[in-house]
Amino acid sequence: MLVAVVVLLSLLVSACNSGGVPTTPSDTVFPTTPPGNSSPVTVVPPVTGAVLSIAMPIDGADIASNAFGLLPFGYHGADHAGGGHSGWDIEYRQGAQVRAAADGVVQAIEPDIIVPGRTKVTIEHALGAHIYRTVYANLSSIREQIILGGAVVRGQPIGVAGTVTATIAATAVTYAMSHFQVDDFEIHREGVDPKAVSPEPFLNAEGRALFDRIWLRSAFAQEPTEPFISMSRDQRFPLTRTWRLDSGDGPAGLSFTRTSGVAADHGYLVLTQSGTAIESGAVTLRVLARPFATIDLVTPTGPRLGLYDIVGDQMRLALGSPGAPRPADLGAASVYRTTRPVLSERVSRHAGDTRVEGPSP
Ligand SMILES: [Zn+2]
């Protein structure tokens, strides 16, 4: 399973835009503090311009979750192990068009350097003096109306989301995806994609509703420790996340730990109410299981077989006793909650408006 997950991640990452430093126009570098566990990069840009409003770059009829649905901003895996994911990987119905998230001007049409034969389109959105760009990568073809310097409108088709084939748990999965990224030229961080910010706070109401539909069905191997839509790209490992029982008859607490950003496998602890660990072992996830992903807690005395579903800070978990069969569904699942992080590394201060690009309430 681990090998399969790594293969999947490699393919996902290879289909990602992990481009380098954007070109000007307003490529101003602001001072940052070094990344760290307790002191994430804090960037406070000057107050100018207006706030970008975006739609999801996908039509509601084109959403798909054969492989993952959506991979969030900031998560770590494979090539994103060090820098964290700079955008969203959005799964599309095969053959579906990727759509412009906002009105703008085509700033670049270029080969996707990560995936031979694929194309990356960048659209610039100038709101007064505040420059944003949205990036659409892994496109297998481009619409003829998309020309360098040409105007585009929100929802306009840009091109077809490229297909990817991966083997996951001995199952060949073919899906279409595009890496979507928002660059804010009043933001700078060191490393790859220095202007990239989470798209989440820029979504308009319709975009947010569509996003929520996609997110409800999304599953990925890192979600026990990185479950949020927007996470810190400056995460350090080992990374532990604790989930506390909210309702149900499951264990009072569970904690999951990943030893590195490359690895997708987790260790676990079963916790008492007071936080004392009373059981430990390894976690086996099968995120492609249908209709719910499976989770096995493997101890020396045998596995506990379970089903789970994580959406943001909530986990539903139906866990069997050691040696017992896997629960049939999540009907009797216990509900767990985890703490949302407060992110200080993505502070983008706009006129009359302060946006902290952490998860929304
Ligand atoms: Zn990506």
Could you explain how this protein is built, in words?
The chain has a domain of 99 residues. The protein has 361 residues and is mainly beta. Strands 1, 2, 3, 4, 5, 6, 7, 8, 9 and 10 form a 10-stranded antiparallel beta sheet that branches. An 8-stranded antiparallel beta barrel has the order 11-12-13-14-15-16-17-18. The radius of gyration is 20 Å and the shape is elongated. The N terminus and C terminus are likely disordered. It has 2 helices and 20 strands. A hairpin with a 2-residue loop joins strand 16 and strand 17. Zinc ion (ZN) binds next to loops.
Describe, in short, the structure shown.
By secondary structure, the protein is mainly beta. The chain has helices spanning about 1-15, 205-215, and strands at about 70, 90, 95-100, 105-110, 120-125, 130-140, 150, 155-170, 170-185, 195, 240-245, 255-260, 265-270, 275-285, 295-300, 300-310, 315-320, 335, 345-350, 355. The strands form three sheets. Strands 1, 2, 3, 4, 5, 6, 7, 8, 9 and 10 form a ten-stranded antiparallel sheet that branches.
